[in-house]
């Protein structure tokens, strides 16, 4: 049983900032290691796209449209991943989804998704 819960979405004016957080809750006897964590987003009528990803070791990757504006980070002790969003633009408006890739000690790999949190950038 694995759950991902996002928080921090909301309405912000262009140029503003928001901080998204995602908490991963694991309630199984299996020992899971959280590998890559990521944030995706999906705007109305659009495909879901990768926004940012971060390896377990902390190496980040960003889609070109958010480079220099967004920052992804993680806390492996708390099983959380965050997305600091600055200089927000209307085109950033979307539902943002947290994603986590988990690996068990036996090598089983599972991808889990959060329920999503709405980010609206509008004046």
Could you characterize what this model shows?
By secondary structure, the protein is mainly beta. 0% of the residues lie in helices and 58% in strands. The chain has strands at residues 2-7, 10-12, 18-26, 32-42, 49-54, 60-62, 70-75, 80-85, 94-104, 109-113, 117-121. β7 and β8 form a beta hairpin. The radius of gyration is 14 Å and the shape is elongated. The model has no long low-confidence stretch (mean pLDDT 95).
Topology:
Layout: E1 2-7, E2 10-12, E3 18-26, E4 32-42, E5 49-54, E6 60-62, E7 70-75, E8 80-85, E9 94-104, E10 109-113, E11 117-121
Parallel strand pairs: 2-11
Antiparallel strand pairs: 1-3, 3-8, 4-5, 4-9, 5-6, 7-8, 9-10, 9-11
Radius of gyration: 14 Å
Treating each run of at least 4 consecutive H or I residues as one helix, how many helices? 0
Mean pLDDT over all positions: 95
User: What structural class results from the helix and strand content?
Assistant: mainly beta
Distance between the termini: 40 Å
The helix-strand sequence is EEEEEEEEEEE
Unreliable segments (pLDDT under 50, ≥5 consecutive)? none
Number-wise, the strands total: 11
Helix proportion:
under 10%
Q: Summarize the main sheet.
A: 7 strands, mixed
Specify the overall morphology.
elongated
* Share of residues in strands: over 45%
Outline of this structure?
By secondary structure, the chain is an all-beta fold. Helices cover 0% and strands 58% of the residues. The chain contains no helices and 11 strands.
């Amino acid at each position: 049983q694995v759950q991902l819960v996002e928080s921090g979405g909301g309405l912000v004016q262009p140029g503003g900032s928001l901080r998204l957080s995602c908490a991963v809750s694991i309630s199984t006897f299996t020992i899971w290691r959280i590998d890559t964590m990521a944030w995706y987003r999906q705007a109305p009528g659009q495909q879901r796209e990768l926004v940012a990803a971060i390896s377990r070791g902390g190496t980040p990757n960003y889609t070109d449209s958010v480079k220099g504006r967004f920052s992804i980070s993680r806390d492996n002790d708390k099983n959380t991943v965050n997305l600091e969003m600055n200089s927000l633009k209307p085109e950033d408006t979307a539902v943002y989804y947290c994603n986590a890739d988990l690996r068990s000690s036996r090598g089983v790999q599972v991808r889990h998704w959060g329920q999503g949190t709405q980010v609206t950038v509008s004046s």
